[in-house]
Fold:
Amino acid sequence: MLVWAAVVTIAPAGVISTLPDKVPPVVPDRQDFQVPDRVRLTGWVGARIDVNESNRLVKLDAARLLEGYRKRPGRQSWDGEHVGKWLHAATLAWANTGDPALREKLDDVAAELVKCQLADGYLGTYLDKDRWTQWDVWAHKYNLIGLITYMRYTGNVEPMPACRRMADLLCKTFGDAPGQLDIIKAGQHKGMAPTSVLEPMVLLYRLTGEPRYLDFCKYILRAWDHPKGPKIISTLLKAKRVDKVGNAKAYEMLSCLNGVLEFYRTTGDPKMLEACLNAWRDIVKNRLYLTGAASYGEFFRDDFDLPNVSNVGETCVTVTWLQFNAQLLRLTGEARFADQLERVVLNQLFGAQRCDGSAWGYYVQMEGKKPYSGTLDGHCCLSSGPRGVALIPTFATSTDADGVVVNLYDAGTARLNLRDGMAVTLTTVTRYPGEEGIAITVDPAEKKLFAVKLRIPSWCSSASVQVNGKTVKPQHGRDGYAAISRKWDRGDRIELQLKLEPRVVVGDHKNQGKVAVLYGPLVLAADAALLGDQDGRLAAVSAAGNSLDKLGVAPEPAPELVRSWAGARVFRVNAIARKPAGNLQAGAPFQVRLIPFADAGGTGSSYKVWLPLGLASTNGNVLLDGNESRSRMGNIGDSIIDGNPRSFVVTLSEKLPAEDWFAVTLDEPAAITRVVFVHGSTFHNGGWFDTSAAKPRVQVKTALDGKWEDAGELKDYPATTSQNPAGLKGGERFSCRLASPMNAIAVRVAGKPASGDNPRVAFSSCAELEAFADKP
Ligand SMILES: [Zn+2]
Structure:
């Protein structure tokens, strides 16, 4: 028996030659993205890429990926998407590391998936009678993306006939001709889900040269303007707002736009690029969170409607937004898209990936807890996140007509070829973004004149560049890069200093009265794990002011508990207690250490990006300084004592309990005469109390070890049922006057959770629980 060493060092992959297209693009790429075997990153970014492969992609259960195909119809309606997404991510990861175990798994999954194809070409998870109703065109899209990526990088074209049969079935089934189905009606979100198959159909057209695949793509573009179609291009050209496109569903729309850019590359229709640039400008200007998240509740919303909680930051949206920027960077060669890539990768994408790579978050919000999960069940995002991370080596460093381009700064090596074929290796030593020095050694095969283009991030107020110890003035090009053109020789050394500075963003719109602190490219957050005690103290953190002077931001090495990589930093900031907490009086100054959003909540703790200013309102709510709890933790964990009726908690879990409760316990008893319950949010599958048998009850404890006593009920709470929320809106207040004043040590509201449209689960929600001692 062979015994393997505990640590297997994997040799870098040989130079992979990708499968060539039969039809070359009409629009040549401005930047040449790299096959991932050329770029090996070893800093913070590299560590996240490595664990994505070793702790996630290699370990995913192949039988689970194929289950819905082997036993149709699968666990849920979109179960078919996971295997194609895995094939895409795992192929890129294998190309990066050359890991033979991953390659073996790839070969196996690709072959087994193909075996599941039906005789007519169908490769979805639906029963015959349910075909083309919801998410099975969508599954074909991901199977095509996965298998095309697999063929492209491995050179194994065995799945090609299966891909052609899938595409032929789509061409035969959908179209304008008599007897064909309307693809808009074949899936969700005004047809944006099924028509996002545009992207791989363009890719397959270029790979095979089959004209009917391009015709099918043109049919999709026509179908978008059908009376019930999403009108993607026409709306973006006219209204120039993504929230007016289709039903504004972000993941599906961005998936379509990624296909539009592939179509533009292939055909050169300038309207396609114009529509996408309009979408990009609109998102960046009006709909983007600091961290690079771009939606809440999975939809693009009105201008600046960016709450910190409310299912913010679906990871599928994060990844398709990343892909959209990567496509635009390839096509235009403009640094502004690479700036957005840095923002989304270092903040929202890494914020959604658990630091050890083993799990992903679905919604990764601006505050709360990271909802990491290691399974795939019910979670589109859990197979999307790894795709985003696996794509990083393709764009971190690239080449263009002038030379080489550095888009992301991380330690490591890039073995590139200039367009004339000459090899250039870049070796980077840095602890960026923990430290500001970036040393890049340039090793061309022979001495030669070309440009090294450096991205000076838009947040960076001061950058300096030296070559071989001498300060140089780079040429700032129209593409937004700082170019150093010279005859580069082996061992030439660039030293780039990107001044890392704190920045304060003063909140507007939904974050009025709050500030966020950034450091270089990193969005920072307060984290209960660094506050020295229980979650209670996080709610007591107020920023000491809205200027750098008052905040006094000071970086220091991260303590062991949160030290996710060698250069990890935390950031000491002046705070005041917005309410009493532990030994702190309200208003007392203290210091907190902020942590990058990417690592925030990594220990399971609560975190918060936007920090309030000033003291908590003293409106007489005696529960504001208490400790909250609830019957079930649920999957949205905000606070019911933060004075913010927009942030809420839910009890959602896969259970059907008879009762839920939301409670606040005090350190000292307080006299109360009135209790107020603020409803959290109404979801399609629950979130309210079912009052068909009884109204929600207010209960009080007068001693810590005492029993809960019924103190009244929420009489004004509407007459709901388990299915019908009776118009209940998030933030609605319901008051209960106690029959007589009570000396409460704890208060709670209890009731029966509602099921909405999913009879298998029931849950309720709460935004605030308040209690007052009204004057008689
Ligand atoms: Zn998702």
